[in-house]
Amino acid sequence: MEKGNKQPLLSSLERDEDKLHSLSGRVTTTTTSFFATFKADSNDIPPITGVRDFFREFYSEFKKLWYLAGPAIFTSICQYLLGGITQLFCGHISTIAQAAFSVEDYVLGLFSYGAMLGMGSALETLCGQAYGARHIDMLGIYMQRSMVILHMTALIFMFVYIFAEQILNLIGQSPEISKATGKFSIWMIPQLFAFAGIFPVSKFLQAQSKIMVMMVISAVVLVLHTLFSWLLMLKLGWGLVGAAVVLNASWWVIEISQFLYVVSGTCGRAWSGFSWRAFQNLWGFVRLSLASALMLCLEMWYFMVLIIFAGYLENPKVSVDAMSICMNILGWAVMVAVGLNAAISVRVSNELGAGHPRSAQISLFVAVISGFLMGLVFSLILIFTRDQYPSLFSKDKQVGDLVSALTPLLAISLTTDSIQPVLSVAIGAGWQGVVAYVNIACYYILGIPLGLILAYKFDMGIKGIWWGMISGTVVQTCVIFWMIYKTNWNNEVSKSCKVI
């Protein structure tokens, strides 16, 4: 009897052991497959073969990335809050003042800001890879070329500001909003030329990891900006004129301070003075700048559409104000992602220039995880305070109620847009042209048409437009993620040599 029971028991144990070996084999295969994506560098750096190796590399890259990302995020938020603080004070002047500032800042301002920031972002590829390859003397030349091109661009955009009222009337905006925006835009022309200097100098400093000085300058300017905005706009009653004076002055102080830091001798070989070489090979530089501008503008102008279409709805002043508040909050979170993007672009371009493809991969992995977690936290905060935070931006109850109703969509956008700028590592790797085509397809062929169908065919209003645009963003994020997953990073190292 005992012998008869042993055979079934042994068979059962053998089957369990076989299942355990099979499961262990699948886990091992999956783990090996995951770590295999982080291949060894071509310069004899050992491969990652297990969890301990991976977390060692992850932690090491986490420290390097956040050494840049922390100050870069703080700088981005401070600079973005210059407009946010101004909008906050405009909301306490009048509804039309807030609408005029919103249209100027989120339509005209975003148009010029996106184009010029995008053109300046070409330096993230050129300066970053040159610094990684130890071609330090080229950084100053690249910066000067970018400044020449951006000042010429500012001259062109100046006419958009001059004829802002006519342009807004032409596209069907409210005459009252168009007139107020047109007057305010003329006052904001000096800001264009401040951008033309700030962006090249910022990218020049970022490539060398000189982020702390930018952070200090931006923080000091933000404090002064808040004080003088209150004084001129509310206390002295200058209104929108006061907003323009303080905002222009703040951007110019940032530009002058950063440039004085560069020419003071703190950048070593990277700055050896003005050179006629800045005017050489301008066309090749213009092409990369235009590709960078197109890639970034297609992303930033995408959300400009929400403000424009809000002006076509019933009660346009309330719709524009509510949407501008949502875009302001989204902008704060996106600035965190943009700061993280600046850091990851520096890390990727530096590592590609130095011939370290695996380090570039791990940097991107760390940045994506960080961006997702931050976006999730921001979204939850908004959901839990949806009935309280709108009153910080406007005294109008209709505006506040609409902002509260739009908060779930805002939370979804926060999460996706905290990942998407980080994935746009194209800036550091030189993929700007390819990503521009992806943006056109996902944003303007899918997202906006779908949003208009939902808004007008299914009577969903501004929510329908937003849902369509979220769909475009999600698809774009998935496409770029797939591109990065399929990338041969060793080939990117070879391409970086050609860029320089």
TrEMBL record:
Entry's InterPro entries? Answer: MATE_euk, MATE_fam
So where does this one cross the membrane? 65-86, 106-126, 147-164, 184-201, 213-232, 238-263, 284-310, 322-344, 364-385, 405-427, 434-458, 464-485
Keyword set for this entry? Membrane, Transmembrane, Transmembrane helix, Transport
Give a yes or no for keyword Protease in this entry. no
CDD domains from the entry? MATE_eukaryotic
Q: Which GO terms describe its biological process?
A: xenobiotic detoxification by transmembrane export across the plasma membrane
Q: Which Pfam families match?
A: MatE (PF01554)
**Which GO MF term does the entry hold, naming one?**
antiporter activity
Membrane topology of this protein: Multi-pass membrane protein
Q: Keyword check for Cell membrane, yes or no.
A: no
Q: Name one GO cellular component term.
A: membrane
Its subcellular locations are:
Membrane
Q: Which domain of life is it from?
A: Eukaryota
Which family does the entry's similarity section mention? Belongs to the multi antimicrobial extrusion (MATE) (TC 2.A.66.1) family.
Q: What is this protein called?
A: Protein DETOXIFICATION
Q: Which organism is it from?
A: Acer yangbiense
